[in-house]
Amino acid sequence: MSKILPSYSLKVKNLQLIRSRRDILSNICLSVKSGEALILRGANGIGKTSLLMALAGYLHIEAGLIGWEKTKQDDDEKTAYEDMHFISHQYAIKENLSLTENLKFWADMNGGSKDDVFMALEKAGLGHGADFEALMLSQGQKKRLSLARLLVSKKPIWLLDEPTSALDSEGDKWVASLIDNHLDDGGLVIAATHLDLPMKKNKRIKTIILGQDK
After folding, report:
1. What is the pLDDT of residues 141-200, one digit of tens each?
2. Could you tell me the pTM of the whole model?
3. 140 C-beta neighbours (distance < 10 Å), count
4. Can you tell me the distance from the alpha carbon of 102 to that of 107, in angstroms, rounded to the nearest whole number?
5. Which domains are assigned to the chain?
6. SS3 76
7. Closest CA to 90 of 177, 149, 131
8. Type and span of the H or E element at 173
9. Dihedral, 141, 190, 178, 132 alpha carbons, nearest 10
10. Is residue 59 within 8 Å of residue 17, measured between CB atoms?
């Protein structure tokens, strides 16, 4: 039986972000909780990545509040930031290592199970190349390998920056199924994307369009 994921809620109030002395985002308010997905939309350069980085604790906020709250406890004392996968548009893989070695690294790093590595590669459509060096992969395959780390260590919060970039239509469906399954498990997803993900209609999905009122 899979471990029940701890539940979280997020509330953001009047958030302001400044980078290089430039106002990136201001007066951002949003809320999302476990079992829900929040989709961030907007033009390139509008601040989607910056917002994700701030939510992950990687970017200083100029003003406002980012409030993560654990609403269902589990056996450990982890914070939201420790219970979080942040998958950026960069692949974060070591090209001189095999696909298996890359995922074993992420399993070790995040307290996951090495026993899940081959399963994750199979679900990513990469099982046939488990022993290949990552440098042999196409851009789309590297993206799949990067996303496969979501499957080797269970974390309730997923922050995904353009998760379907470099993927074809089948890859888009795979990403949508990953999110669908994570929501079914009680996970929380915030994804910045310019594409409509083909997720199930019964999912609780919110969308925010950044820069809409400018």
Report:
1. 999 999 999 999 999 999 999 999 999 999 999 999 999 999 999 999 999 998 888 888
2. 0.94
3. 16
4. 9
5. 1-83+158-167+188-214 (3.40.50.300)
6. coil
7. 149
8. helix 169-184
9. 20
10. yes
Place of tokens 């953001």: 12
Q: Tokens at residue 188, please?
A: 């929380």
Single-letter code of the amino acid located at 70? K
Average pLDDT along the chain: 92
DSSP state of 131: T
Which tokens sit at 174? 């795979």
Residue 63, token pair as written in the block: 């003003």
Which position has the token pair 């994750």? 120
Look at the block and give the residue holding tokens 């907007």: 42
